[in-house]
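Human:
Class, as today's exercise, you are to examine the entry below, and be ready to discuss the fold:
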Amino acid sequence: MAIKLEINMTNKWLYSLIAVGILLALGVGVYAYQSNMRAGNPPVMGHSAGEINVENSAGEIVSLQDALDDLASSSGRQSITFEVYNSDTSTYECVDKNLQDLCGDEDGCDIRILMQHENDGNDQVRIIDEHIFMEQSSMSNNRGSGTYGWTRQSGGGDYSWITGAGNRYTIFSPWDWVWMLNYRHDYCPGQSGHGSAWDDHYKFTFMSHPHVRTKVIVYD
């Protein structure tokens, strides 16, 4: 009987130690998670081939860039973020984007341009917002070909343009640091002469000066 009692007591202590260990591990994990959330650092869930995956506000595992886009849309607006940048200071850079979903709807879009000069002695930066509205077939009498568009620039400045009708237009060009066009400019890498205007009414080319590193955020 004594031996049996000793074994039972030993088992009880073993189970108790295991239970305490599990509780401590859970407590440390919860504390670390809450600390990260309070600090605004989402937990990194994994990475491969140089890509970092994180958990977004909806609890989904997404790429870091998608998470940044989600943060850029913290106001609840859909958005995309991209750079127009060449690492040297002698080559223009061009990025083509289809903006139908963001800019082609009935409430238009806002485009924020963040610019960093690369060789200015004072490391000059500039920022500007461009507000764009494009013709809506449900509102228009549809008399003319193509899609009429209008740009209103913060601080002043307007541009009118028509896409999909064969003519080349500048959508905006603040300080000649960055341009939005409905065609590929002959300064774009690999381009020989100006390209034809895009047939796609919602396709645009963003071009950045060689001395400027440009980040573009397009908000619906």
